[in-house]
Specification:
The chain has about 425 residues and is of the alpha/beta class. The chain folds into 2 domains: about 1-190 and about 335-430, Rossmann fold; about 195-335, Rossmann fold. It is about 40% helix and about 15% strand. The strands form 2 sheets. Strands 4-3-1-2-9-10 form a 6-stranded mixed β-sheet, with helices on both faces. A 4-stranded parallel β-sheet has the order 6-5-7-8, with helices on both faces. β3, α5 and β4 (about 185-190) form a beta-alpha-beta unit. α4 packs across α5 (about 165-180). About 50% of the residues are buried. Bound molecules: D-glutamic acid. D-glutamic acid (DGL) binds near residues 66, 69, 115, 247 and 290.
């Protein structure tokens, strides 16, 4: 009898331990199970578990974004120089810190904008997409073209950089929890946390409010206010403004009729009007909380300055006291490079000085809509229709209504290709070297 009691107590403890270990979020639980069911990486969004049993230091670094905007973060990674490469000391030496590392970039272009899934009530689907992005980087599976059979020779990665603010906001914790559950020692860095660290490092004695400009979904998650509160002991007031169209407009999406300048003016104006209702400290810092916004930094700063000086009919300046005359601008991309460097160093994953990365060149991938998947609906540009895109629900991490193929500079929408060529020279060079 006593023995039976002991067994029952043990079983109860085991059950409690299992429940405590299994994630409460079904999206995360399904992604974990999906991988555990495919340890050979033989399904979409899975990886070869054995790839992570050896020394990971010579593997490339994975970077993903909802599209091409994250190439701004890759540019920052490729040009970052804050350390002496030989000694690791915190002193720029004129040599990019990640010069000998290689990157694998993935832009989930077919499923973007990520920033609009929240308003469509589809954050679970967004979380599933983000976990699939991470699994793609970890895995070997890719296709040469949309109708080709999958190949299994993409290198796995030792680190995941979530270059997308929206994806960091909604998926950083999931990706970390999943990699932990899978038992793989990769590091994961997210652009939102990094931005908050950058704010803490550069804010100095400023006491004003911080304006975060981002997508609607990033703002809805409150990821920036939370990360800022965590990073700064005397957390400043944070005013957020999410745009549903600015990122697309910067990329030159023909569906957006207003210019980027018009959208920026409207968004900054809306943010200031909101603040005018209960004015606090003047805004003295702006966080560029979306991958695309560093490309329009001067327009954003210009809009704050113009509106600060704007006169109403009675000659007053309604926004004059809401904005400081000097703005500190925080670009989280730069600080993501800093966080990545530190994370690789502290986990012993930097490429050893006498070694070469196992991958000769950077590799670039992009998702495209898959006509072979039953039910996919296409718009006139060959992308998924908005109804199809935002009508989907989480539940099948292995679905392949989009597939992942190499990114070719010349096959990007001309405006996006032009942005890369003119504004992201290190990335453009790397794409050319890759033959793309
Ligand atoms: N990459 C996204 C971000 O940084 C912007 C584009 C999108 O909404 O997908 O939040």
């Amino acid at each position: 009898m006593q023995r039976l009691g002991a067994i029952a107590i043990l079983a109860l403890f085991l059950a409690i331990a299992l429940v405590a270990r299994s994630p409460t979020n079904p999206v995360l639980a399904r992604a974990i199970e999906h991988q555990l069911a495919h340890p050979q990486g033989d399904a979409a969004a899975t990886f070869v578990l054995a790839d992570y049993a050896d020394d990971l230091r010579t593997l490339p670094i994975g970077v993903f974004d909802s599209g091409v905007g994250g190439l701004t973060v890759l540019e920052a990674l490729k040009t970052f120089d804050a350390h002496d490469n030989a000694t690791g000391a915190a002193r720029a030496d004129g040599v990019p810190d990640f010069r000998d590392e290689r990157f694998i970039y993935f832009g989930d272009q077919a499923n973007m904008p990520y920033g609009n899934y929240g308003a469509a009530g589809k954050t679970d689907f967004l979380r599933e997409l983000i976990l699939k992005d991470a699994a793609f980087l970890l895995g070997r599976r890719w296709r040469e073209s949309v109708d080709a059979a999958p190949r299994m020779d993409k290198p796995p990665v030792k680190a995941i950089v979530i270059a997308c603010n929206t994806a960091t906001a909604w998926g950083l914790d999931d990706v970390r929890a999943a990699t932990k559950a899978w038992g793989i020692p990769v590091v994961t860095v997210g652009v939102v946390e990094a931005g908050a660290h950058g704010l803490a490092a550069t804010r100095g004695g400023r006491t004003g409010a911080v304006a975060v400009l981002a997508t609607k979904a990033t703002c809805a998650s409150n990821a920036y206010p939370k990360a800022i509160t965590k990073a700064l002991p005397n957390a400043p007031e944070v005013a957020q403004r999410g745009s549903g169209s600015l990122a697309a407009s910067i990329e030159g999406d023909p569906a957006v009729r207003e210019t980027s300048e018009q959208i920026i003016d409207a968004e900054v104006r809306a943010l200031l009007r909101e603040r005018a209702k209960s004015p606090g400290a003047p805004i003295d810092t702006v966080v560029l909380g979306c991958t695309h916004y560093p490309l329009v930094e001067s327009e954003i700063v210009g809009a704050f300055a113009r509106l600060r000086a704007e006169k109403a009919a009675d000659g007053s300046t309604p926004f004059g006291t809401l904005v400081s005359d000097k703005l500190l601008v925080v670009d989280p991309a730069h600080w993501t490079a800093q966080d990545l460097w530190r994370s690789l160093a502290s986990s012993g994953l930097r490429l050893p000085a006498d070694s070469k990365c196992g991958t000769e060149r950077d590799l670039f991938f992009i998702s495209v809509a898959n006509p072979a998947w039953s039910g996919t609906q296409f718009d006139t540009h060959g992308g998924l229709t908005s109804d199809f895109k935002y009508g989907r629900d989480a539940g099948d991490p292995g679905r392949e209504d989009t597939v992942i193929v190499p990114m070719w500079l010349d096959r990007l929408p001309p405006s996006a290709a032009n942005l890369v060529r003119t504004r992201l020279p290190a990335v453009a060079t790397s794409l050319r070297e890759t033959g793309h």
